[in-house]
Amino acid sequence: VLDSQYGMYVWPCAVVLAQYLWAHRRSLPRKRVLEIGAGVSLPGVVAARCGAQVILSDSEELPRCLQSCRSSCLMNRLPHVPVLGLTWGRVSPELLSLAPIDIILGSDVFFDPKDFEDILTTIYFLLEKNPHAQFWTTYQVRSADWSIEALLYKWKLKSIHVPLHSFGADKEHLASSSLPGRHTIEMMIISLAQSDGT
């Protein structure tokens, strides 16, 4: 039902990732940040308001989501934040010409298992170009059967779990939703695995 609208809603994962950015706001000025699958762009907007140099992106095939990114920037007095069409798993001129980045953001991008490898190939490409960078991502636990562990290993990536209580995001009101069902949110930081196999 929400298929055509999923980029038009502030999902609980976006609120949790925004909380992480706020908790680390002193480290954000002058950081170069790319948000993928941005939709309404809450994490990217928070990063920009905290002094980061932000680029927002969503699928080039979803013009309404790209317009949503632009609208969020205008509503938050950030008219100069660039918005790019980047489709996961696709090498495009926009992806190839991206300036160096320090942090990649993604809230609830691990939504549909058919997209997991495309997301991680894009992340791997970005981290190879920016070996010091990290992918900060929050996701909703939807099925115990869904895992990206094998894909992380395949793409030579590693992840670190970030406990929500460590940045004050374990409060019920932060990760709650008016949508039905439970909303267990997790956060991890993904980076390139070291050459020694870690």
Features:
alpha/beta, Rossmann fold, 7-stranded mixed sheet, 6 helices, 7 strands, developmental protein
Overview of the molecule:
A seven-stranded mixed sheet has the order 3-2-1-4-5-7-6. The longest helix is centred in the middle third of the chain and has 14 residues. It has 198 residues and is of the alpha/beta class. Strand 2, helix 3 and strand 3 form a beta-alpha-beta unit. About 3% of the residues have low confidence. It has one domain: Rossmann fold (3-Layer(aba) Sandwich), CATH 3.40.50.150. It is globular. It contains six helices and seven strands; from the N terminus they run αβαβαβαβαβαββ. Helix content is 29%, strand content 19%. Its main location: cytoplasm. One of its GO terms (molecular function) is protein-arginine omega-N asymmetric methyltransferase activity.
